[in-house]
Amino acid sequence: MADPTLERWRLLLGEPGAACLGGQPLDPRAAARDAALDWLYGRDEDLRRRGVRRQGGSGPSSLTTFGWLDDIARLFPKETVERLQRDAVERYEIHDVVTDPDVLARIEPNPALLQAVLRTKHLMNPQVLRLARRIVERVVGQLMDRLATEVRSAFTGARARRAGRLRRARDFDVVRTVRANLGRYQPETGKLVIETPLFFSRTRRHLQPWQVILLVDQSGSMVESVIHSAVTAACLWGLPGVRTHLVAFDTDVVDLTSDVDDPVELLMKVQLGGGTDIARAAAYGAGLVEQPRRAIVVLISDFYEGGDPHRLVRVVRGLAEQGSKVLCLAALDEQADPAYDRELGQRLADAGAHVGAMTPGELASFVAEHVGR
After folding, report:
1. What are 269's strand-pairing partners?
2. Do 336 and 353 belong to one domain?
């Protein structure tokens, strides 16, 4: 039996790594794994140039996409399957992973496939689009469940330092109770007799209306931020004291606010790709502001401006000077790992914006902090 570590190196290196096993053949399961890896990575020109030659699924045992997906689900752990699926749709643009109805009917939804659906849904016929929607619904539902918890936590009322009428264990005020009952301490038993337990009262902070205006760049590189913006907007929708707007833009501006309460429908309407006119979107967002000092304008983009950068800076400066909070986020996703035009980002920061990246939970906390004032 081959050493498992050496076998993994053989699978990693492909056929050139055969020396790892000293000429021994792969066992049947490992050979099936190797064939599945060959099917995907054998098409990589960069690997060929570096001498990592794979068969690319040639020969009589060549796999179809459908068969390959079945094989990797059987042969690899879930985390590896998701990575292989992600490489298939993002790195090698194997679109039939998300456009073949037979494949879609059996594939396990995950975030990488959601991104692939959003990028390729314009290629789908109505039947395939209905199946693809299953992926969108499942992954968006998972994201909603996670983020809704963070949003609720951010907006939970603080405990007031006064006695409350409701007696609940979680609101028991130990310090004040001990102080109020010190006269009932019994030295002979070493016990404090509690006659009057005291409790905190939980009060919901008084919330005055705030506008949260999300302006989202729908260029292809921003797909993760588009997804998380839709889910974040849905979680903020309907919260007391918050009115949420969601606007998508490329060279055009599309107000999607009417669909904010249904992030699945919203994402199915998003059209990824195209040029970018950030200044135009910022001007539209500025036009939505009703009470400047009670508005948070969140501009989500990589800031590679295809429009007029001078106009963009002027609009952002105007928003900041009138008292609106302006966030210019190069990423709104779970990694918050931005890639953006840093020169323009610096100019926006100089104009009064907060520039950086946030996770959806961090954005919810930012909104809650200002809304609760």
Report:
1. none
2. yes
What's the residue count for the chain? Answer: 373
> Residue 158: how many CB atoms within 10 A of its CB?
11
Tokens read off for 221? 């590189």
Tokens of 8: 């993994």
272 and 352 co-located in one domain: yes
Residue 156 domain-assigned? Answer: no
Q: What's the half-sphere exposure (Cβ side, CA atoms, 13 Å) at 221?
A: 13
194 Cβ neighbours under 8 A, 6+ residues apart: 177, 181, 184
CB atoms under 10 Å from CB of 172, counted, come to 13
Asked whether the predicted pLDDT for residue 248 surpasses 90, the reply is: yes
How far apart CA 284 and CA 162 sit, in angstroms, is 45
CA-to-CA distance for 333 and 357, rounded, in angstroms? 8
Tokens for 116, please give them.
């692939």
The reply to whether 223 and 360 lie within a common domain is: yes
User: What's the sign of the alpha-carbon dihedral 111, 112, 114, 115?
Assistant: positive
Q: Are residues 216 and 364 in the same domain?
A: yes
Could you give the CA distance from residue 358 to residue 335 in angstroms, rounded to a whole number?
Answer: 8
Residue 285 CB-half CA count within 13 A: 36
For the packed helices 309-321 and 342-350, what is the interaxial angle rounded to 10 degrees?
A: 30
Contacts of 148 (CB under 8 A, 6+ apart): 235
**Orientation of helix 223-236 relative to helix 126-155, angle to 10°:** 60
- Judge whether residue 56 has pLDDT over 70: no
Ordered DSSP codes for 77-127: -HHHHHHHHHIIIIIS--THHHH-HHHHHHPPP-HHHHHHHHHHGGG--HH
Whose CA is closest to 223, among 267, 254, 256?
Answer: 267
Coil, strand or helix at 73: helix
CA distance linking residue 27 with residue 2, whole number of Å:
8
- Residue 236 pLDDT exceeds 80: yes
Whether residue 61 has pLDDT greater than 50: no
Q: Is 153 among the domain residues?
A: no
